[in-house]
Design brief:
single chain; 16 helices; 20 strands; 502 residues; alpha/beta; FAD/NAD(P)-binding domain
Length: 502
């Protein structure tokens, strides 16, 4: 029997497992699905690779702390593991195009050429992106273990960005966008996240990209998951799939037994839940729901979540002439009763082995708000045929607009897959189908959960929901932090070493 049971084999669970093994703790990951990966997921349809997660990965610059963590878990081993593009996305509004270039001088000049009326705000925007390159995601130790010296070092690193952060943190993306007259710049600011996100998120995202800290891993989500899995197994870790936890036994403030749907159970010394917290508290008991999560769930206006409808099309031909990511306006279409006026495309033509020879695959993203999850949930639960028909209707509407915008590929698109918020919920247990955590809005302070639950002395939490707004980097570091908290509480060595127990 392993000392440590890790429930959930996503990025956070794998990270926790790797650092457990490196610390000399015998661990086993229990994953409800047939494969590990969690939200960092992909699969194959008709010979095409469908990547339903990573569009960019924070932590690809050696200048940032999190780069070392990606190295330690085996995801980044050399520069060739990273796919870098000259631009993040292209926006096309009525045939007028602009890019988010990695080269900020080039970006500034292009934006000034398409929106000279916004000159003053464009220059401020570019300056803000440069300023936010100083932001650092703390990745070495959890907040409570940082100490004065490490805290001060971190503050000094980010000192340049602090005044700008204070000035803009109370603005949403929508509110900030109103400072510009150009609809192109509006769309660059919104990109593919909800408008109520606080504007710092846009500054941060583009800052990380332009400094080389937000790029794609070669191989996409599969490469992240497979490399972490292989690293974990190489250190002596164990993985059990098709193991869905349903409840626990608790004695003397400790989880003493975890039961699974297949009738089996484990009796570990320590437990890490690296799942969606809604799943976690359903298993351990809703009475352990702490004030942090309770308040968030009860105030969706302050802590909203969001999801996507994602469509995947096979393309008969290579699409080197198309943007890697593009947002273009189009004739309105409806999804879950709401009008959409743009299409967001993402293609994988630069990724090896994502499509058969001479072909490509394209993803379409449509933001879905938390209130729209009910639409998909009701449709799926009341009439599966209508659910399928609605997915097909949306795909047909999108296909018409794709062929209008890309006439050279008319007749060459074939639908592969439609993923809805209900899909995220069904396969991953995601709360309201969200693939990230609670949205960071201007109305609340950034929340960082302590990763422990009062009244359960051997339980630790990991996962993107512990730190708004979630995402891959937060999933990664919270897995590491869970082990550091365990080691600290148990007065064990906090030095990660590649020593396997036998």
């Amino acid at each position: 029997m392993s000392e440590l049971a890790i429930i959930g084999g996503g990025v956070s669970g794998l990270a926790a497992g790797i650092y457990a093994q490196m610390s000399g703790l015998e661990s086993e990951i229990f994953e409800s699905h047939t494969v590990v990966g969690g939200q960092c997921t992909s699969w194959t349809r008709k010979g095409f690779h469908i990547d339903n997660c990573v569009h960019w990965m924070t932590g690809t610059s050696p200048k940032k702390e999190i780069y070392k963590v990606w190295q330690e878990v085996g995801v980044i081993t050399k520069e060739e593991d990273i796919l870098r593009h000259d631009y993040f996305l292209q926006v096309d509004i009525d045939g007028v195009k602009a890019h988010v270039w990695r080269n900020l001088d080039k970006m500034k000049q292009e934006l000034l050429s398409v929106a000279p009326e916004d000159e003053k705000e464009i220059k401020k925007f570019i300056k803000l992106i440069k300023t936010f390159q100083a932001i650092e995601l703390p990745s070495m130790v959890p907040n409570e273990q940082m100490g004065f010296c490490r805290n001060m070092k971190l503050v000094l690193k980010m000192l340049k960005a602090i005044p700008a952060f204070a000035k803009y943190q109370k603005l949403t993306l929508a509110e900030y966008a109103q400072r510009f007259k150009s609809p192109i710049i509006h769309r660059i600011i919104y990109n593919y996240v909800p408008e109520q996100f606080y504007v710092i998120s846009a500054f941060y995202m583009y800052a990380m990209f332009t400094m080389g800290n937000a790029d794609l891993p070669v191989g996409g989500s599969d490469s992240i998951t497979n490399r972490m899995r292989d690293k974990y197994l190489s250190l002596g870790g164990k993985i059990s799939t098709k193991k869905k936890a349903i409840n626990v036994e608790i004695n003397n403030k400790k989880i003493t037994k975890i039961k699974f749907t297949d009738g089996s159970d484990v009796q570990p010394k320590y437990v890490i839940f690296a799942t969606d917290p809604d799943v976690t508290f359903n298993v351990i008991g809703r009475q352990y729901l702490d004030e942090h999560f309770k308040f968030s769930y009860e105030h969706p206006d302050l802590y909203p979540v969001f999801s996507d409808v994602n469509l995947y099309f096979a393309i008969d031909g290579k699409i080197k002439d198309l943007p890697i990511m593009e947002i273009f306006n189009c004739e309105p279409y409806q999804v879950a009763g709401r009008d959409h006026k743009v299409i967001i495309t993402n293609n994988y033509t630069d990724q090896p082995n994502f499509a058969p020879e001479g072909k490509d695959v394209m993803q379409i993203l449509m933001v879905q708000y938390d209130y729209e999850y009910k639409y998909w949930d009701d449709l799926y639960n009341t009439d599966r045929e209508k659910y399928k028909a609605e997915k097909q209707r949306i795909a047909d509407d999108i296909l018409k607009r794709l062929e209008t915008h890309y006439p050279q590929y008319k007749g060459k698109f074939t639908l592969l897959e439609v993923v809805t918020p209900k899909s995220f919920n069904r396969f991953l247990g995601s709360y309201k189908g969200s693939y990230m955590g609670f949205i960071q809005t201007p109305y609340t302070k950034k929340e960082v959960h302590k990763g422990v639950i009062e009244g359960l002395d051997n339980l630790y939490l990991a996962g993107q929901w512990l730190q708004t707004p979630g995402g891959l980097p937060n999933a990664l570091v919270t897995g590491k932090f869970a082990i550091q908290r365990l080691l600290k509480r148990e007065n064990m060595s906090d030095k990660f070493c590649s020593v396997k127990k036998h």
